[in-house]
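A reminder before we start the practical. When you read a complex entry, don't treat the lines as separate problems. The point of joint prediction is that each chain is placed relative to the others, so the output describes one connected object in space. Small molecules and nucleic acid strands, if listed, are placed in the same frame. In the example below there are two entries. Take a minute to note the order of the lines before looking further.
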Amino acid sequence: MHYSFDIERGNFADAGQASSSVKRTLKHLGVDPANIKRTVVALFEAEINAIAHAYGGRIDVDIDDGKIVMVVADQGPGIPNLDLAMQEGWSTASPQVREMGYGAGMGLPNIKKNTDDLKIETTVGVGTTVTMTVNLT
Amino acid sequence: MTIKEIARLVDGEIVGAPADDNYEVKKAFASDLMSDVLRYSMDETVLITGLCNNQTMRTSEMSDLRVVLIGRDKQPDEDMLELAEDLEITLIKSKYSIFKISGILYGAGIQPLY
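Here is the predicted structure of the whole assembly.
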């Protein structure tokens, strides 16, 4: 099964709609609740990151019997230092993002914790693609 | 402890989804930082927060929270209330500070997450 969603820069009003939709689908499919939780937490973190930092993007989710693969691809600005971004507490979030309750520098580490595989490809000025896999078996 | 008992202890008002009398709350986590809420398991937990917006609801949804206690007399808007009903999340509004709410619930036997 394949699902895709668009991400609009700074649109916090709709933030979480993609993750919410995926959550409903996984529940409907009877996926184990623990796997649903880590899937949607990882996707939600990535969704928030893209809304907060990028200039727009797209989410693609593929679900099969064995795994869930989620790709969040955005346009710019890219991550200049990925090692720093993976550190808990390191953040470049704006005050507006922090007022929303995010931007504490926990997003990428939390995605790593909740997924079985995480790949981040990023080019400054071009964009970032985050590929997250949750194994179901 | 039931959701209604918690509401009574903090002189709160129940809004959003109706309180499920069969849902037992054993633990609480107090945070205005949704990034931290997403890091922990929220089973049988009430979130105590002063952050009152749709992101509180979306974070609660992803964390499988069933009840959120909004302190500091913050007022959820219509959008937030509608989202809470859709997501079947019960909100308790209280005029008390987060510190006072936390103290009352801790004293009544609600456990911390850690």
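Discuss with your neighbour: The first strand of chain A starts at residue 2 and ends at 7. What might explain this?
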